[in-house]
Specification:
single chain; D-Maltodextrin-Binding Protein, domain 2; 3 domains; five-stranded mixed sheet; 12 strands; 41% helix; elongated; LysR family transcriptional regulator; transcription; WH-like_DNA-bd_sf
């Protein structure tokens, strides 16, 4: 049995429809039918039961399918390893993330990458807000997924992976916590908690404005080094913080509330890498993250 005929058989076993199988393999339905009939003549028994309405595997066909699937997987893995070696998708890949939802996406993509390219290992590191681009600049990371926009020399911005509506994290007893939504103008009503350290200007201007759209000053609150400090400060009534709406799923705790913004742009999270160019492994990981980010929940 030729490899192409095996591929046709396994595809039909999954689709159980000659037309869909032909479309999937970019061949004609008659080519599918011819290949199956040839296999059945060689084996000496039907592999599929066909009616005008349905296609089903026979017991023998199911047995053949079960026996062939591990072999196909082994062949595909061997091909993937060869492709990975040729493209340089080997060795350790160091990936950073800034939020739990970015971490979820990175971890899913890393698992798929490792399954396809056995020679590639993925090391994942959380980025701290006091030095959000430092690990990438120092060569400690190959790529990271974090807040946009970033317009910094030596760093290239790749595709946006996630676009999240904003919310304001406020003390549970604050007047804003009783509202169904807030406005960017409400940033003048409470101190804004800010990160300590070297935060890029493009990120500061977008995420931590000094003035509201009408020009009212946004008061500054205490500073933090690590994100968990922020929720504690908010719960203590020391200030507020602009977050993604989904932060409520990850960071909710007694003493705080999350109120969605009714205006202002979304918070984008995308891929960053050094401007000397992404490696083949980085490109493969980014492609996977784009695919996974586009999948419907």
């Amino acid at each position: 049995m030729e490899l192409r005929d095996i591929e046709i058989f396994l595809a039909l076993a999954e689709e159980l429809h000659f037309g869909r199988t032909a479309e999937r393999l970019h061949i004609t339905p008659s080519r599918v039918s011819h290949a199956i009939k040839k296999q059945e003549r060689r084996i000496g028994a039907p592999l599929f039961e066909r009616t005008s309405r349905t296609v089903r595997l026979t017991a023998l066909g199911q047995q053949l399918c079960d026996d062939l699937l591990p072999a196909r997987l082994q062949i595909q893995q061997a091909i993937d390893r060869a492709v990975a070696g040729a493209r340089g998708i080997t060795g350790p890949l160091r990936v950073g993330y800034s939020t739990p939802w970015c971490a979820d996406l990175v971890l899913r993509a890393a698992e798929v990458l490792r399954s396809r390219h056995a020679g590639c290992t993925v090391q994942i590191l959380e980025i701290q807000f006091d030095d959000p681009l430092g690990p990438l600049r120092r060569g400690e990371l190959d790529v990271q997924v974090s807040e946009f926009p970033v317009r910094e020399p030596g760093i290239t911005s790749g595709p946006v992976l996630l676009s999240e509506p904003r919310a304001l994290m406020v003390p549970a007893g604050h007047a804003l916590a009783r509202r169904s939504s807030v406005s960017l103008e409400d940033l003048a009503a409470a101190p804004l908690i800010t990160p300590r350290g070297t935060f890029p200007k493009s990120l500061l201007d977008f995420h931590l404005p000094t003035h509201t759209p009408s020009g009212r000053p946004v008061p500054r609150g205490p500073v933090y080094t690590f994100w968990p400090e922020t929720t504690a400060m908010v719960a203590a009534g020391l200030g507020v913080s602009v977050v993604a709406v989904r932060a409520a799923q990850y960071h909710d705790r007694p003493g705080i509330a999350f109120v969605p913004f009714r205006d202002g742009p979304a918070l984008d999270y995308g891929v960053l890498w050094p401007s000397n160019g992404p490696s083949a492994a980085v490109t493969a990981l980014v492609d996977l993250m784009c695919e996974l980010a586009d999948e419907k929940p």
